[in-house]
Amino acid sequence: AQSVTQLDSQVPVFEEAPVELRCNYSSSVSVYLFWYVQYPNQGLQLLLKYLSGSTLVKGINGFEAEFNKSQTSFHLRKPSVHISDTAEYFCAVMRQGGSEKLVFGKGTKLTVNP
Amino acid sequence: EPEVTQTPSHQVTQMGQEVILRCVPISNHLYFYWYRQILGQKVEFLVSFYNNEISEKSEIFDDQFSVERPDGSNFTLKIRSTKLEDSAMYFCASTLQGYTEAFFGQGTRLTVV
């Protein structure tokens, strides 16, 4: 079975500051990795995904994430955040070659303050 | 841009009543899913549906739950006899292939009273 741990439930930052949202996973088999964002009163939207290849993946809205297999991590970063980045961010994994279900972490609420 | 639509956005029902949550997945997608999120908890997988049958279901998806694709466009989740603990946000999702991007709907907030 797979599991995902998002170490921070809430992250407050000031506008234009860098941010890192942490995600660690546990799996006995290889996985695909995803970050989703949920803006208030909206559904989940894919930010970026890692399927294979380069361990640094770039997504929408200036976000990027780095897959680290040895540390089983997939941390999300943005060098300079905007007020509009205020949202809940979910890390998720999917087992390769098996079930297509996503296993989510508990989410990190990012609040960007002026 | 294609999107997954869910109706209603909010439903209040009495304990023991049946509810049907509706979803219209993206038209050319082949895999369909229901997830739920109890307030303050993580998003949990309920069921996946492919080729007109359930491909996987979680322990949560017991005999009180069922899914159906009654026509070429709708995908429904039925809860036969709702319990208080069924109160949650229910998300529908669809993908073109199993491992590609899952597109989620805006969710239906179900409140059981």
Tell me what the structure shows.
The complex is a heterodimer of chains A (about 110) and B (about 110). Chain A has about 110 residues and is mainly β. Chain A is about 0% helix and about 55% strand. Chain A has strands at about 5, 10-15, 20, 25, 30-40, 45-50, 55-60, 65-70, 75-80, 85-95, 105, 110-114. In chain A, the strands form 3 sheets. In chain A, strands 2, 5, 6, 10, 11 and 12 form a 6-stranded mixed β-sheet that branches. In chain A, a hairpin with a 5-residue loop joins strand 5 and strand 6 (about 45-50). Chain A starts with a strand and ends with a strand. With about 110 residues, chain B is mostly beta strands. Chain B is built from no helices and 11 strands. Chain B has strands spanning about 5, 10-15, 20-25, 30-35, 45-50, 55, 65-70, 75-80, 90-95, 105, 110. In chain B, strand 7 (about 65-70) and strand 8 (about 75-80) form a beta hairpin. Chain B starts with a strand and ends with a strand. The relative contact order of chain B is 0.34. The mean pLDDT of chain B is about 95. The chains are: A mainly beta (about 110), B mainly beta (about 110). The interface between A and B is medium-sized, with 23 and 26 residues.
